[in-house]
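can u do me a favor
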């Protein structure tokens, strides 16, 4: 493993706060807005130096966005359920998938609505874990759903996301931007809402990340490695104005399935306009020992489906320039396999795929967005 992850220890911090208990008194009944109670618990634990905020099992905590702060473990053993009521959010929110009237391509609501769990610049040492569920609560149609990212982390270091289940997503589910030293492991991503944009794990301008032993079935790209510079959509909860290279990322032992649309691995070099191209380089990416499940058609109303379905995807397009891309080097894809059953959650037999290694991505098949894995 080259993407070493160091998560700071919380030993010595004895705080373990149950949000159901006084003075927080979260209802956990699935209908009361518990945002203020959960946020107060996080604020208090972080201010005291660190510890754990627990959402206990057998309760459903309805909420708007929650800010995770330094040295806090958010232990989700019950269900944290996104509200679809704008007044339940601290920041302005809108309904729908896209920003109305925007001239930008793919100007998603999740760039503007704050993520359900989010961090701000300078946050360090955060964990989201537990045996419970992050329910992103699609209401069945865009104009009745507040569409947000599940976990959106900005300019944060020492991150751990593990063991939870994420369900019913309409937009990206785990979305670190300009983060360092992170691990996502043993997360189950399931039952995506119909439609585009419910990517599983999107890493933009991130470094030293390890994505491993997750099980994801989503309706768009499963794992993105992304470089970006001055993306005009990123101006609310995150930004790509000061990028860092996307380097030292290991993606292994994941089981990845697709319904409807998208790729299992997607490299997106959208930094062509950066004055210093080394700040938007994608480098040292190791993708190995993953199981790629067969594509199946999503038969639900409104679901997108494409016959073109690569296992691996390289995306050169962006809204600022159709041609050119930021540098890509040292991408290794080895010992991955094709599984047999997309909707099966257990141990998955696999058949070997070809792999490749490269120092510079210049081959025509790569710029055409098809790898030998897809053939």
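np, heres the sequence
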């Amino acid at each position: 493993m080259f993407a070493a992850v160091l998560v700071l220890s919380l030993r010595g911090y004895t705080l373990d706060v149950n949000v159901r208990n006084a003075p927080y008194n979260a209802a956990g009944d699935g209908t009361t807005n518990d945002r203020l109670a959960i946020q107060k618990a996080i604020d208090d634990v972080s201010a005291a130096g660190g510890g754990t905020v627990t959402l206990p099992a057998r309760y459903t905590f309805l909420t708007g966005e929650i800010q995770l702060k330094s040295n806090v473990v958010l232990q989700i053993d019950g269900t944290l359920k996104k509200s679809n009521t704008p007044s339940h959010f601290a920041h302005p929110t809108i309904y729908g998938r896209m920003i109305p009237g925007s001239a930008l391509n793919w100007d998603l609501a999740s760039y503007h609505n704050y993520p359900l769990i989010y961090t701000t610049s300078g946050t360090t040492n955060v964990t989201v874990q537990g045996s419970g569920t992050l329910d992103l609560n699609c209401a069945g149609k865009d104009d009745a759903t507040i569409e947000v990212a599940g976990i959106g982390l900005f300019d944060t270091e020492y991150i751990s996301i593990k063991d939870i289940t994420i369900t019913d997503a309409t937009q990206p589910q785990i979305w670190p931007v300009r983060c360092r030293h992170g691990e996502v492991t043993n997360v189950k991503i399931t039952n995506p809402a119909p439609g585009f944009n419910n990517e599983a794990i999107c890493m933009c301008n991130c470094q030293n990340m390890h994505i491993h032993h997750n099980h994801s079935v989503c309706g768009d790209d499963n794992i993105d490695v992304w470089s970006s510079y001055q993306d005009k959509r990123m101006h609310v909860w995150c930004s790509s104005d000061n990028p860092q290279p996307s380097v030292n990322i290991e993606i292994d032992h994941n089981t990845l399935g697709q319904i409807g649309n998208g790729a299992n691995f997607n490299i997106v070099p959208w930094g062509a306009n950066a004055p210093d191209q080394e700040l938007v380089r994608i480098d040292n990416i190791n993708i190995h020992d993953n199981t790629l499940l067969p594509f199946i058609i999503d038969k639900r109303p409104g679901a997108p489906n494409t016959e073109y379905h690569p296992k691996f995807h390289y995306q050169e397009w962006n809204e600022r320039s159709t041609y050119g891309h930021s540098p890509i080097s040292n991408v290794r894809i080895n010992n991955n396999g094709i599984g047999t059953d997309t909707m099966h959650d257990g141990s998955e037999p696999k058949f070997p795929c070809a792999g490749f290694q490269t120092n510079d991505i210049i081959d025509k098949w790569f710029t055409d967005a098809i790898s030998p894995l897809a053939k």
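The chain is about 5% helix and 35% strand. hope that helps!!
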